[in-house]
Amino acid sequence: MSSSITHLFLAGGFVMYPLVMFLIVTLMIGIERFLLYRRFHKDMRQFTAVLGNHPGWIMLPTVLERDTKELGVLFARALRNAKNYNGLENRLQDLVGYTDERLKRGLGWLSMIVTMAPLLGLLGTVLGMIRAFAVVGGDIGAPTIITGGVSEALVATATGLTVAIIALGFHSYCAAKVNDFIVALEHECGTILDAYNEEHDL
Question: What are the residue boundaries of the MotA/TolQ/ExbB proton channel domain, all occurrences included (predicted)?
Answer without folding.
Answer: 74-186
